Amino acid sequence: MLEMKLCGDPILRDVAAPVLEITDEIRAALRQMGDMMDAQNGVGLAAPQVGISSRFLVMRKPGSLICMINPKITEKSKDTIVLEEGCLSVLGPDGIPIFVDVARPESIVVEWTDEFGDKHSQKISGIVARVVQHEIDHLDGILFIDYLSSAKREMVMNKVKKRKI
């Protein structure tokens, strides 16, 4: 059984290793991650968030679960957009993700391999692009709070610390 890792766990700051072979174990982890994400009303979940230091993630698009193995952003738009972001690994004292405004490129081109070994490349924008960027950041040891000013980050971390008993 996979376990959600929370802000402060060192695995969230590690750069995840590339997946060299898509195994049944990885497919099972992807399915379990999808279930965990759905149970917590999330829209994306990266392997390090469940204690696996490998480059794969799941995300929810309307009507389907997308599994990305070794995803890589190959292009980013110059135009950025500021939207609220939260994270299943950054929880407030009430156990609910903390949401703050984060600026990110409005659109990206991402390449990945799916759970069947098929290669994909797609230009995406809007909320889907934001989710992919957020989750790929997890694979690189980056949290969304790293994009905040030091004052705003400190405010978020004070809320996170109140959760720890």
Short summary:
This protein is of the alpha+beta class and 165 residues long.
Break the fold down into its secondary structure elements and pairings:
Layout: H1 24-39, E1 44-46, E2 56-61, E3 64-76, E4 80-85, E5 100-105, E6 107-113, E7 119-125, H2 126-139, H3 150-163
Antiparallel strand pairs: 1-2, 2-3, 3-6, 4-5, 6-7
Q: Tell me, briefly, the overall form.
A: globular
Average pLDDT value?
Answer: 96
User: How far do the termini sit from each other?
Assistant: 24 Å
Structural class of the secondary elements? alpha+beta
Number of DSSP strand runs: 7
Percent helix among the residues?
A: 25-40%
Please work out how many helical segments DSSP would assign.
3
Radius of gyration: 15 Å
Instruction: Tell me the fraction of residues in β-strands, as a range.
Output: 25-35%
Please trace the helix and strand order, writing H or E for each element. Answer: HEEEEEEEHH
What attributes does this structure have?
165 residues, alpha+beta, 5-stranded antiparallel sheet, two-stranded antiparallel sheet, 7 strands, 27% helix
Detailed description of the structure:
This protein has 165 residues and is α+β, with helices and mostly antiparallel strands. The chain has three helices and seven strands; from the N terminus they run H-E-E-E-E-E-E-E-H-H. The protein has helices at residues 24-39, 126-139, 150-163, and strands at residues 44-46, 56-61, 64-76, 80-85, 100-105, 107-113, 119-125. The strands form two sheets. It has a five-stranded antiparallel sheet with strand order 1-2-3-6-7. The chain has a two-stranded antiparallel sheet with strand order 4-5. Strand 6 and strand 7 (119-125) form a beta hairpin. The two termini are 24 Å apart.
